[in-house]
């Protein structure tokens, strides 16, 4: 029930459809999406970069997805059963589902893919700590044995970001721990080509096996109405918006929020607002370098005034808010004010004392950011001014997003990097608080609370556990939260079937 409340509140802030009345769906056309840049990979198991999810979401599928209330909904699964007091999950797969190479989906593909996901993916590693074994007793049955019951397993399998998508077994075996080389899934669109700095082209998969149920949330029947989708890297935000205005693109990602009033006056263009979209953050390196000293992390946190930081990044005050909670106000069952006094401290004197206590003598703090997400760069610029005013020396390194995502995996080359943590309905697998994600914020008590929360079924007890996680987050300075943000996107008004949601689903979308 709490998920229904959550989504109702989320949708209050969203532009649900670009037009008041939709015509009958039509087949055909090439949808052109102007993206912020190039993705670092198309292997979803290996990255939490949202742009990878946006593109591969159309190509790959998992056992579950989200329903309209952000609960788990079967996708490649026909049915499932839970036995042995919640420790054994038996999944029956849908018969006749085909991969893009013509091969039929079997349990062997699922077992190979989930094992790889559990080894390489950030949420997969969190899930797999509780997995005893997985087996395929017959071609359409997968059995997952858990060490302890889990209240969050299906939500983990449904998560799209860095998700548990299923590849053919032979492709998984060939890749091992390396990048997937063949981008083959079971989704409504198939990969055609990647021409760097030009486009990634997808085409309708004619043998797609759609579910029979009516569309619901991100599940039910998925139809590929478009002939092709072109994801075009357009790093300059002004060029993205101009392209939508002229009709060169159907969709422009991450439009600068101060363009909202102008966008509303453009002929043939409709604004799409994602509320909430993410919270902007500086991720600190807990594994190596300056930020391993808790006092330096605390000085970083104490120095900052979040209002000018967020104003610089998002311009229009309607598109950001200053709030301490790690989960959004639109998620009342998780919203927390625990240790909120450590957020937005605006205390230069405290920061200077902490730096002195740590013996900091002006060593450069290497901060990686990007202009492809303009708000990340502008947040970092203002934060740098505030930090240098208390004695930090900031070496701001500006790179493209794909390079940032690759570089953040190397703890020896950075101290801070810019990013945002997107809307997540399940805190047990929240990237912002996981140990195995870049930043490597590993804390024994926090990790125990996270594991306990994944097992616990009582909502009140789960909320109390999440409060403990947020308490430790601020005391230990796991990351530095700047504030919540709402994304602005631009859309041509001939795009039909659009869902104004951050995941960018393009099935069931057509062109007038």
Give an account of the 3D structure.
- The chain is of the alpha+beta class and 512 residues long.
- 29% of the residues lie in helices and 23% in strands.
- The strands form four sheets. Strands 1, 8, 9, 10, 11, 12, 13, 14, 15, 16 and 17 form an eleven-stranded mixed β-sheet that branches.
- α3 (107-120) packs across α4 (122-128) and α14 runs antiparallel to α15.
- The longest helix is centred in the C-terminal third of the chain and has 18 residues, at 459-476.
- The two termini are 37 Å apart.
- Residues 1-21 have low confidence and may be disordered.
Briefly, what is this?
With 512 residues, this protein is α+β, with helices and mostly antiparallel strands. It is 29% helix and 23% strand.
Task: Give structural attributes.
512 residues; alpha+beta; eleven-stranded mixed β-sheet; 15 helices; globular; disordered N terminus
